[in-house]
Amino acid sequence: MSSRSIVVLILASMAIFAAQPATKTAAEQTMANPLIGTWKMTSWTRELTATGQKSDALGPSPIGWISYSRDGRMIVVVVRSDRKAPAALVPTDSERISLYSSMLAYSGTYTVDDEKVTHNIDTSWNQAWTGTKQVRFYKVDGKTLTLRGAPAKDAVDGMESVYTVIWEKVE
Questions:
Q1: Which of 20, 38, 51, 78: disulfide with 67, CB 3.0–4.6 Å?
Q2: Over residues 86-108, mean pLDDT
């Protein structure tokens, strides 16, 4: 093989290598998307837009987790901290209603831009949410994630409200 052929082969190899997309490290991916990871809920409040009155959205100290993966999937589950277990393995109808009304859970894909995250829900505890897009405005401050919804009519009482959820990063 001539030296010219070797040079052409080296240049071709370099061009192929340079055309390959660079793989980002986990740290680089997290910097590009600060939501990646698992977060534990610390508070969830509801503010009535008409009066500014604030209250706990799902009772005091709700228990919840949200996780955003690098592959663009997310999952969230939240329950009241004072949920009562059913008396038996199979709940009665009233126990089932109480359990259902004391939780929220859904999963799907998500997209992120500079100020908002959109949850594209494909599975939900409430079938009315399945197939919808839920937009949340977010702010990450160190290990704290704040998700805030836009003003909307509450599904429980119809009053226009804004919900704010605070999460702490799980390491």
A1: 38
A2: 96
